[in-house]
Amino acid sequence: MSESNEIDIKSLHAIVLRETESDSIQEIDPNFFRNLSDFIGNLKKQEFDGIESKIKQSLIDMASELTSLLIHTRLEKTIQSDGINFSNLLDEEKFILDAEEQKRERKEIILSAIINGKSKYLESISLNHKTKTVVLRFLQEVDEIVGADLEKYGPFKPEDVATLPYENAQALITKKVATKIHWED
Q: What digits encode the pLDDT tens for the residues 5-51?
C-alpha cells in the first residue's frame, strides 16, 4: 500500500494473496476496512457510460469478492486456531467474533440448564427471547395483530416502522410483508 494507505484493486489483491498464502493472520493497517469501504464507495459514485461503466462494475465486483475472501480467510484462521490471537485482528473482525463467542456462551448456558434440571430458567430464556423486540419496516399492509407478549400492534401500511416481539417479527419477515431494520450508531 502507499504511504497514504489508499486502496486500489492491485493492493487489495496483494493483501488477499498474502493472507491466503500464510497460515497465520497477517498484520493489516487498522483503518484497512474503512479505506477499502471508501475505495468501493468512491467507485460506486462515479458515473460512466458504455464500456467504462462495465469496467467500473467489474472492479466493484472484483473488490467485493476479494473483500469477502479476505474476511472469510482471516476469520476461518481465527476460528480454526487453538488459541485466538487477537493482535492482528481488526476491530471489524473482532466485532464479528464477539457474536461467535456469544453463541458459544449461549449454547453452554442452555446445555447447563438442561443437564442441571433448570426448566424454569429455560422457560424464562424462552419467554425473554419470544418477547425481545425487533424493529421492522412494513412492505405491505398488515391488519392489527396480537404479539407474543399479548399486546396489540397495528394496523400497518407500507413503509410504516414499528417495534414488535421477535416471534411476530420473524413470522412477518418470513412472509415477506416486513423487513428488519438494522440500526447503525
A: 678 999 999 999 999 999 889 999 999 999 999 999 999 999 999 99
pTM above 0.85, yes or no: no
Give the number of domains in the chain.
Answer: 2
Over residues 134-154, the mean pLDDT reads 92
Does the residue 36 lie in any domain? yes
* Neighbour tally for 156: CB within 10 Å: 23
> Residue 58: which H helix or E strand, with range?
helix 50-80
Q: How far apart are CA 127 and CA 134, in angstroms?
A: 15
- CB distance 40 to 34 below 8 Å: no
> Alpha helix locations (H) across 89-165?
91-115, 119-131
Q: Which of 26-40, 66-80, 81-95, 138-152 has the lowest mean pLDDT?
A: 81-95
Which run of H or of E encompasses 178? strand 178-180
Q: Quick check: is 28 in a domain?
A: yes
Residues 65 and 14 in one domain: yes
Cβ-contact 120, 156 below 8 angstroms? no
DSSP state of 88: G
Q: Which of helix, strand or coil describes residue 33?
A: helix
Other beta carbons within 10 Å of 93: 19
User: Which residues span the domain enclosing 165?
Assistant: 131-180
- Taking a C-beta distance cutoff of 8 angstroms, is the pair 88, 27 a contact? yes
